[in-house]
C-alpha cells in the first residue's frame, strides 16, 4: 500500500463529509459532528447507568478541557444536554441528555444504523473482521509511539 497515512486521512475525511451531508439531508445536521458524538456517548453511558462528567467527554473525544466545556455549553444552548452539579464536588458537573435528546434517540440510532449499512454494503464479513483487526493493531502501534494522549483542539 502506497502512502497509508494519506489513504487513511482521505478515507476519514470522506466519511466525515458523507455523515455531515446525510445528517443535513435528514434535518439532524448537528449529529454529524462532535455534538452527535457526545449524544451517542451519553446515550451509551446512560444505558449503563453511568454518570458522565465533562472530563469524560474530553477523554472520549480526545479534546482539551476548554474545547469540551465550549462544546457542552453549545449543547446546553441547543437543548441537547443539561448540567447537574455534583453533590460531593461543586466544581464537577454531570452531563445528561435532555428529554428532547432522549426522545430523538431512536431517530439518531436509525440514522447511524442506515449509514453503517450503506457503508458496509458489499463488504465481506470475514474481510471486515480482518480490517478491524488491522485497525486495532494500528491503534496499538499509535499508543506505542505515544500518540494516544494528543489533544485535538478543533471544534465544530
Describe it.
With 156 residues, the chain is mainly alpha-helical. It has a single domain (4-123), classed as Winged helix-like DNA-binding domain superfamily/Winged helix DNA-binding domain (Arc Repressor Mutant, subunit A, Orthogonal Bundle). The protein has 6 helices and 2 strands. It has helices at 4-25, 34-47, 54-61, 65-77, 99-119, 125-145; strands at 81-85, 93-97. The chain has a two-stranded antiparallel sheet. Strand 1 (81-85) and strand 2 (93-97) form a beta hairpin. Helix 3 packs across helix 4 (65-77). The protein is globular. Residues 150-156 have low confidence and may be disordered.
Please tag this protein with its features.
disordered C terminus; mainly alpha; 6 helices; 2 strands; 156 residues
**Name of the CATH first level:** Mainly Alpha
Instruction: Give the neighbour order of strands across the main sheet.
Output: 1-2
Instruction: Give the name of the CATH architecture.
Output: Orthogonal Bundle
Outline type: globular
Radius of gyration: 17 Å
Counting DSSP H or I runs of 4 or more residues, the number of helices is 6
| Helix residue percentage | 55-70%
Which percent band covers the strand fraction?
5-15%
What is the terminal-to-terminal distance? 32 Å
User: Within the CATH hierarchy, at the fold level, what is the topology?
Assistant: Arc Repressor Mutant, subunit A
> Helices and strands: which structural class?
mainly alpha
* Helix and strand element order: HHHHEEHH
Query: What is the makeup of the main sheet?
Result: 2 strands, antiparallel
Q: How many strand units?
A: 2
Poorly predicted runs of 5 or more residues: 150-156
CATH H-tier superfamily = Winged helix-like DNA-binding domain superfamily/Winged helix DNA-binding domain
Number of domains in the coordinates? Answer: 1
Organism: Streptococcus symci
Pfam families: MarR_2
Protein name: Winged helix-turn-helix transcriptional regulator
Domain HTH marR-type: 1-140
Amino acid at each position: 500500500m502506497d502512502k497509508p497515512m494519506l489513504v487513511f486521512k482521505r478515507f476519514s475525511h470522506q466519511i466525515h463529509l458523507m455523515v455531515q451531508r446525510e445528517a443535513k439531508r435528514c434535518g439532524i445536521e448537528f449529529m454529524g459532528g462532535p455534538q452527535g458524538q457526545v449524544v451517542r456517548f451519553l446515550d451509551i453511558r446512560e444505558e449503563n447507568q453511568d454518570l458522565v462528567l465533562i472530563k469524560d467527554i474530553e477523554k472520549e473525544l480526545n479534546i482539551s478541557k476548554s474545547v469540551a466545556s465550549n462544546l457542552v455549553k453549545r449543547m446546553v444552548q441547543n437543548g441537547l444536554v443539561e448540567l447537574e452539579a455534583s453533590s460531593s464536588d461543586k466544581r464537577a458537573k454531570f452531563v445528561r441528555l435532555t428529554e428532547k435528546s432522549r426522545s430523538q434517540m431512536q431517530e439518531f440510532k436509525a440514522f447511524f444504523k442506515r449509514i453503517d449499512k450503506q457503508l458496509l454494503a458489499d463488504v465481506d464479513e470475514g474481510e471486515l473482521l480482518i480490517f478491524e483487526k488491522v485497525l486495532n493493531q494500528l491503534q496499538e502501534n499509535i499508543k506505542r509511539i505515544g500518540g494516544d494522549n494528543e489533544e485535538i483542539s478543533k471544534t465544530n
